[in-house]
Write a structure and sequence with these properties.
Elements lengths: L4 H18 L5 E3 L17 E3 L5 E7 L5 H8 L4 E2 L5 E4 L7 H17 L4 E7 L1
Helix pairs in contact: 1-2, 1-3
């Protein structure tokens, strides 16, 4: 099957959006700890409910960094060289939610791998 780079991006992006919206991150409460171990939150201090769960970054690494799809991403300004080689396209969706960003990237990678593009997910908690 022949798919142009723009159509491939749209397909992978929409699959990623769907996966991100369907994911269910575990919410967290952030506050000031009562001791240095952080085992309890000091309720006399402000607390914040973070619906999206843990914060972090996620992206898709395409390696090797060549081909029509990588050229398309470069032309659109949708990524950069990855530190360990390849081309890195960060997930710009879902604010700071690591779970939703990883779900997006997993679906994105699935679409690319169907067409034989070698890629993987790179993520880290913030």
């Amino acid at each position: 099957m022949t798919v142009n780079a723009s159509e491939l991006f749209d397909r992978a992006h929409h699959a990623g959006l769907r996966a991100g919206h369907e994911s269910t991150p575990a919410p967290m409460v952030v506050g000031t700890p009562t001791d240095i171990f952080g085992s309890e939150i000091d309720n006399s201090e402000p607390t914040y409910f973070v619906e999206g769960g843990a914060c972090g970054f996620a992206g898709v690494v395409i390696n090797p960094a060549r081909g029509k799809f990588v050229s398309f991403l470069k032309a659109k300004g949708l990524g950069r060289k990855h530190y360990y080689g390849g081309f890195y396209m960060t997930c710009r969706e879902f604010g700071q939610s690591l779970v939703r960003k990883e779900a997006y990237c997993e679906a994105f990678v699935d679409v690319l791998e169907e067409l034989g593009i070698s890629c993987y997910i790179d993520s880290r908690m913030d």
